[in-house]
Amino acid sequence: MAKANEKIAELYEFLITKDAYNVQYRASLAESYRLIGNYEKAQKTALKIIEVLPGTGLKPDEKEEVRKTVEAFLKTLPY
């Protein structure tokens, strides 16, 4: 299963090079990192979501929902 998640992470890393403001790509990448146990990368990737929010074109209430989701995700990490 870890090998599959590593491949999935590689896919999302590639997709982000094509669309750096796609929040779903970044969220999926963060989750992939969490599943393979790379918590540092999971945290950095999740925090990057908040950093790119201004360029996403999301409405203010959608941005707030994304922030809340990122905060909840960060609490799942063993730090």
Structure description:
There is one protein chain. With 79 residues, this protein is mostly helical. The protein is 75% helix and 0% strand. The protein contains 4 helices and no strands. Helix 1 (2-18) packs antiparallel against helix 2 (23-35).
Task: Write a concise synopsis of the structure shown.
The protein is mainly α and about 80 residues long. Helix content is about 75%, strand content about 0%.
Total helices: the number is: 4
The poorly predicted ranges are none
Question: Which radius of gyration do the C-alpha atoms yield?
Answer: 12 Å
Structural class: mainly alpha
Amount of helix: over 70%
Architecture blueprint of SSEs:
Elements: H1 2-18, H2 23-35, H3 39-52, H4 60-74
Feature tags:
single chain; 79 residues; mainly alpha; 4 helices; 75% helix; globular
